[in-house]
Design a protein that fits this description.
285 residues; alpha/beta; 10-stranded mixed β-sheet; two-stranded antiparallel ribbon; 11 helices; 12 strands; 28% helix; 23% strand
């Protein structure tokens, strides 16, 4: 296996250490999470260029691979975080970019599939992570692999308007469609309450996109962020929008979200950063 282990440059991880199988421990080192007293614990994973771009946003180059340089270490970390998740939340736009994808650990790093499964088993997670897709408009094609394969349980969170549109398609048996009440705007609180009703008190991984991240930051519902910095400068001009990992929420200066650095790991020129957000830090100015 030609994937070099990460070098730990700084680590101040609180909480309970997870029982990583030797293969994963040799690659990543220690991994701990704080106790979360039966409530959902939300952590996000993103890869960004040095200038803060998370997608090149041009056809054929919309995914995270173009940002990370298809870095193998980034994919192993992605798989590790998926392997401890009870639910993985993505926006419908991400699904449209990757219709053949399913959100499991082995999908992104198959060489570690056995170790990921061992970790899930040791954590008492007998099912694959719930794949959660969020769409206010209902613009989802149920022909995507996540819906048709039956490999993962799927939850679609939508608005009443979106639910009407989705009912025009055949809903596969592994898919549950839940409209949230209210005015057709889906908030982070709506999402957490809906997911928690199905996977209560779980570890919830947020993989994007930027509008979802904006809502979670705005409502102070994100506990941690795992951020890979790829040594690439993507650039921007007026011809195409290239967002950062937060969109749709204006936070600074009145509502800045401040974080505490938890760990820094290095894989050659890629940096793997981990930040914790708390109520006190989020209200700091």
């Amino acid at each position: 296996m030609d994937i070099a282990p990460l070098e730990t440059l700084y680590q101040a991880t609180p909480g309970n250490e997870l029982p990583l199988p030797p293969e994963l421990a040799a690659f990543y080192g220690r991994l701990s999470f704080p106790l979360h007293a039966g409530r959902p614990y939300v952590f996000a994973n993103f890869v960004s260029t040095l200038d803060g771009v998370i997608t090149l946003n041009i056809p054929g180059h919309m995914g995270g691979g173009d940002i990370s340089g298809f870095n193998k270490q980034d994919r192993v970390v992605m798989g590790l975080l998926r392997s401890i998740a009870d639910a993985i939340i993505v926006g419908a736009g991400t699904l449209r970019v990757e219709p053949r994808h399913i959100w499991t650990a082995s999908q992104v790093a198959p060489d570690f599939a056995t170790a990921y499964q061992q970790l899930r088993a040791s954590l008492g997670k007998v099912e694959p992570p719930l794949n959660v897709f969020v769409t206010a408009s209902g613009d989802i094609d149920f022909q995507a692999r996540a819906f048709q394969s039956g490999e993962v349980p799927v939850l679609v969170i939508t608005s009443s308007r979106g639910a009407e549109r989705l009912r025009e398609q055949h809903v596969p048996p592994s898919v549950q469609v839940v409209p949230v009440p209210g005015n057709n705007r889906i908030t982070a609180q709506d999402i957490l309450e809906t997911v928690n009703a199905i996977r209560p008190g779980g570890m919830i991984l947020l993989e994007g996109g930027a509008q979802l991240m904006g809502s979670f930051f705005e409502q102070q519902l994100l506990d941690e962020l795992f951020l890979t910095f790829a040594p690439q400068v993507a650039g921007r001009d007026e011809s195409v929008e290239r967002p950062g990992f937060v969109s749709g929420a204006l936070l600074a200066p009145e509502h800045s979200r401040w974080a505490t650095l938890v760990s820094v790991k290095r894989g050659e020129s890629h940096l793997f950063l981990r930040y914790s957000f708390t109520t006190e830090q989020q209200s700091a100015v």
